[in-house]
Amino acid sequence: MKLYPFGLKHKGYNNVINGTHHPYGYNGKEENEELGLNTLDYGARNYQADLGRWFGIDGMAEKYLSNSPYHYANNNPILNFDVDGNYFVNFRSLFTAMTFQQNSRQQMEKNNKSIEQLQGLIDGGNLSEKAVANLNGLIGGLEGANSELQSSIDEVSTLMGSSQGYNIEDAGAFASSGHTTYNFNTGVVNIKAPLGNGFGLLGHEIHHAYQFDQGITSLSDGSPIQKSKLIGVDLADEWNAYKRQNAIEPGTSYDTYNELNNDTSSPYANHPRTPKSVSEHALIQKILKSNGTKAQKAKWLNQESSRKNQAFRINGKTYDGKN
Fold first, then answer.
1. Closest Cα partner for 169 from 188, 190, 153, 149?
2. Over 70: is that where the pLDDT of 190 sits?
3. What is the total count of domains within the chain?
């Protein structure tokens, strides 16, 4: 099927159907053909490809003040992909996420071959008990890495299907670190890492995005946050991200939790040592356990987000002072 960038079908040679009727068209969205509507169902809104505009107003219009509330993919469907009528992502970001998953699968295949070779040495016999123990230790390490790699694949899939928007950005070839932040203007989480030198740092930052998505930690806009104001942020969040990074790209500086814990010069020195999720934070718990209505609790959670300059998610909903 030939389509224009905004989804309108080319006329004259698109009317031959081979096989059964397939009601899914542009971007895999279902076509509403009843009553001659000719719209596409994105979930949150219906889209009119002949106009390149939405049938309904943008529910997140306050986050895109420079655009019409009816705009599609920031008026650039070549560069951007609208997920469900609520937010759009950059196509390069989507491609990077899929490439990251493929890289993790390839690394797992390499690990499996190494495991087979090591197991072959053990099965061949004529080895001392110490040698067998060492080989089993190597096998265990590779199996642990594979578990982390599979989790990284699954977590990217979770982020792709989330109601929260995520965007991957290249930090540049000379960057030595990455960061994951929340854009309070657009409501999108920005995952930034150097993409030209392996996938380790990207895996680290994607894990932080997953922690945010699942309500394990909060995110700021990148501004420093006082320890007393941190919501759900703790040292375990960083250790688990470094663990993921090591599985994807062995040799990360922090090899043990104690090493990370004892580095007083690290940027994580002010992080609380006791692991706590967002919902386990004292003030958040107080709100969740209050007798307020659902709307009141949402208002209070958003107020807390504004006061602490941190966005967070609870039960699949994002609170950023606006939502």
1. 190
2. yes
3. 3
229-287 tens-digit pLDDT: 899 999 999 999 999 998 998 877 666 777 888 888 877 888 888 889 999 999 999 99
Q: Give yes or no: residues 113 and 240 share one domain.
A: yes
Give CA–CA dist 231/245, Å, rounded.
23
Segments in 40-160 forming alpha helices (H): 91-123, 129-160
Q: 3-state SS of 73-92?
A: HHHCCCCEEECCCCCEEEHH
The answer to whether residues 131 and 257 belong to one domain is yes
Which amino acid is residue 313, in one-letter code?
A: R
* Residue-wise burial string across 301-323, b where 16 or more C-beta atoms lie within 10 A, e elsewhere: bbebbeebbbbbbbeeebbbbeb
Q: How far apart are CA 15 and CA 119, in angstroms?
A: 58
pLDDT tens digits, 90-129: 777 888 899 999 999 999 999 999 999 999 999 998 899 9
Residue 131 contacts residue 179 (beta carbons within 8 Å): no
The phi, psi pair for 190, rounded to 5°, reads: -100, 120
Q: Within a domain: residue 272?
A: no
Q: Edge-to-edge strands of the sheet including 46-48?
A: 30-32, 39-41, 46-48, 53-54
Cα 303 to the chain's mean position, in Å? 25
As a whole number of angstroms, the distance between CA 110 and CA 190 comes to 31
Tell whether 103 and 216 lie within a shared domain. yes
**What is the four-CA torsion angle of 233, 310, 277, 280, rounded to 10 degrees?**
120
176 and 288 in a common domain: no
Q: Which domain covers residue 82, as residue numbers?
A: 26-86
Beta 179-183 vs 53-54: how paired, if at all?
A: unpaired
Residue 2 near residue 14 (C-beta atoms within 8 A): yes
Considering the domain architecture, whether residues 241 and 187 belong to the same structural domain is answered as yes
